[in-house]
Specification:
heterodimer, A: 389 residues, two-stranded antiparallel ribbon, B: 220 residues, alpha/beta, Rossmann fold, six-stranded mixed beta sheet, 27% strand, binds adenosine-5'-triphosphate, binds magnesium ion
């Protein structure tokens, strides 16, 4: 490309109104594109962060979520005796047998009902999940009908003040505290005593059991031991992190699919916008193109100059879109997670991959929008171009 | 030095063939200052474009400095133009977003000169046309006469074999036109430039060594 760069960007500046409008279109699409990717990453991160690498979760074979899983007491008790399972400082098996159910609560600001996850836990659960910290009130007492709420639940549902009572199952539960689970999925859960929950919901069996491994490498040996034990034939083990990763796929995949279909439709509009701008640029600068060609600049230099002009437009638009989208990192949203059908709060996560994908996406718009106009510019006949003065 | 031999040129408009030049032969020796005159539509611009290598004859040959330019392919012809032809247009054809300096530098971007060498050449060319103090100005900030002088600097900066000028004073007032003609005369006399100039202006033609008239496809 022999045509000076100053020619390209000053031409863009010379028609700054059109340039700004085109940039606006591209930036908007890039913004939506980046926001979708950030959202889907946010979901993944929220769920993946929920799982710990040291923990392993036992579920019923082929149950792909806790909601549809059942583990009987015998099975859970046998597992607790396995040598790969760590013990607490108090000498007990480092394990939490849990019940996971879904209830309905009224949302704040409207009377819509939302699904909320309720988890009955064993006393060891808090040590299994050190990221969960009490922020107000106190922990519930085991043996009592008391509950503690994740911070997203407290923010989003009615009658969730400490001291108030919620009715679900066959019981009335007193709210005694709030916890913060550092943005993980537990933030969208209600926790109480597993035995109380079992009684209230009439459930003699657990949904899942979570164990701490003596070390991360013990996962495979534990799995082998489980497979050899005929009493545990119906149980399947997963690393807790992998379990939550699987949980995130459905949701993040759905967000990505829907979001990207929408953005791709938008992007056709933005690409056509860029194309119109570039065709107009070629038409307005026909004499300039003829002059450059007369002076000895080749067709391919002209092609490159106009294509680069379009690419600059698209990359700057993409960068503006990313800048706008990065403002979304402060927004948290809450919606139904399809994996568990209950509310999940998550945020927009800006990662380097999102930036790169968005810039590539914008670049594609620039190349597609700029190519035909650039070809037209390069195909102009010198004489007729000079004549059009 | 420029040998136009028996060329014909016609344009096609729809299915109609419009003959513009027929069997034109013309010799321009080195250092010549030739003015081409004639009524509108007589084909002056067409002949000039053929000599400048931005158009091709239907038949006949054009040899400039020993090169038969009708045989060059498009890309080689473009390179040939950048080395051998300096263009001066009626409407100056400066790029509006580039400064005087940058406009004059344009043809040098097609050479292998270093940035420093380019700057020296550009400064010399702009000083020669009397605009050494206007290098950073954009075309819009210059008068028509000054714009044309920038265009002349751009035409001579590569030291081409031939300068082609199509009505270089056609858009200028009398005084500016006079200045441009003085400059053209100087380029011819002092710098030995071969010039082919199309003009309607008899005062401009006066400066030329030789005036030829094109009418109804014939050259006298
Ligand atoms: N690209 C073209 N396509 C069709 N016809 C053309 C083309 N170029 C020139 N002509 C025709 O050829 C004839 C000669 O045109 P040319 O521009 O050479 O005339 P000219 O002598 O320079 O006229 P003027 O003094 O008005 O500039 C005109 O009739 C013009 O309409
Ligand atoms: Mg003409």
């Amino acid at each position: 490309m022999k045509i000076p760069f100053a020619y390209i960007w000053r031409s863009l500046w010379a028609r700054r109104l059109t340039t700004a409008l085109t940039l606006g279109g591209i930036a908007l699409v890039a913004f939506v594109f980046a926001a979708v990717l950030m959202l889907s990453r946010g979901v993944e991160e929220t769920l993946i962060e929920t799982g710990s690498l040291d923990n392993v979760i036992a579920l019923r074979k082929s149950a792909n979520s806790e909601l549809v899983s059942q583990i009987d007491r015998d099975g859970a008790n046998i597992l607790k005796t396995f040598p790969e399972i760590a013990t607490t400082p108090g000498g007990k098996p480092f394990a939490s047998t849990e019940i996971y159910v879904i209830i309905n609560l009224s949302k704040k600001g409207s009377n819509d009902m939302g699904n909320v996850s309720v988890r009955g836990i064993s006393p060891e659960a808090l040590q299994l999940r050190p990221q969960v910290k009490l922020t107000a009130g106190r922990w519930f007492n085991f043996g009592q009908q008391e509950i503690v709420l994740g911070k997203s639940i407290a923010q989003r549902f009615q009658k969730c003040e400490i001291g108030q009572e919620l009715r679900f199952g066959e019981a009335t539960w007193k709210i005694v505290g709030y916890f913060d689970a550092q943005g993980s999925a537990f933030d969208s859960e209600i926790w109480g005593d597993v035995e109380q929950m079992g009684a209230a919901f009439g459930r003699p069996v657990f949904s899942s059991a979570t164990f701490r491994l003596t070390s991360q490498q013990e996962f495979e040996p534990l799995k082998l031991r489980l497979q050899k034990d005929p009493r545990l034939a119906s149980i399947e083990l997963k690393r807790e992190r992998e379990y939550y990763e699987e949980q995130s796929k459905l949701m993040s995949g759905f967000i990505k699919l829907l979001g990207l279909v929408v953005t791709i439709i938008f992007s056709i509009g933005a690409t056509i916008g860029a194309m119109i701008t570039m065709y107009a640029a070629v038409a307005n600068r026909t004499v300039e193109i003829g002059t450059l060609r007369a002076l000895g600049f080749k067709r391919r230099s002209v092609l490159a100059a106009f294509l680069i002009e379009s690419i600059i437009l698209s990359l700057v638009g993409g960068a503006i879109g990313i800048a706008l989208a990065s403002g979304m990192s402060f927004v948290r949203i809450s919606t139904t997670n399809f994996g568990t059908f209950s509310e999940l709060a998550f945020g927009f996560t800006l990662a380097p991959g999102v930036v790169i994908s968005t810039l590539v996406f914008a670049l594609v718009m620039g190349v597609l929008g700029g190519f035909l106009p650039a070809v037209r510019a390069s195909r102009l006949n010198i004489l007729s171009a000079l004549r059009s003065a | 030095m420029i040998e136009v031999h028996n060329i014909s040129k016609s344009y096609r408009r729809d299915s109609l063939e419009i003959p513009v030049l027929s069997n034109i032969t013309l010799d321009v020796p080195e250092g010549e200052f030739l003015a081409l005159m004639g009524p509108s539509g007589s084909g002056k611009t067409t002949l000039l474009n053929l000599i400048a290598g931005i158009d091709r004859p239907n038949t006949g040959s054009i040899t400039v400095n020993g090169t038969d330019i009708a045989t060059l392919n498009e890309s080689n012809l473009a390179t040939w133009r950048s080395h051998n032809v300096g263009f001066i247009f009626q409407f100056y054809n400066l790029l509006p977003v580039l400064t005087a300096f940058e406009n004059v530098e344009l043809p040098l971007l097609l050479t292998n000169l270093s940035k420093k060498e380019r700057r020296e050449h550009v400064e010399a060319a702009l000083k020669l046309v009397g605009l050494g103090d206007r290098m950073k100005h954009y075309p819009k900030q210059l008068s028509g006469g000054q714009e044309q002088r920038v265009a002349i600097a751009r035409a001579i900066v590569t030291d081409p074999t031939v300068l082609v000028a199509d009505e270089p004073t056609g858009d200028l007032d009398r005084v500016s036109a006079g200045e441009i003609m003085v400059l053209m005369d100087r380029l011819n006399k002092e710098f030995k430039k071969t010039i082919v100039m199309v003009t309607h202006d008899p005062r401009a033609a006066e400066k030329a060594h030789k005036v030829m008239h094109l009418d109804k496809g014939e050259l006298n």
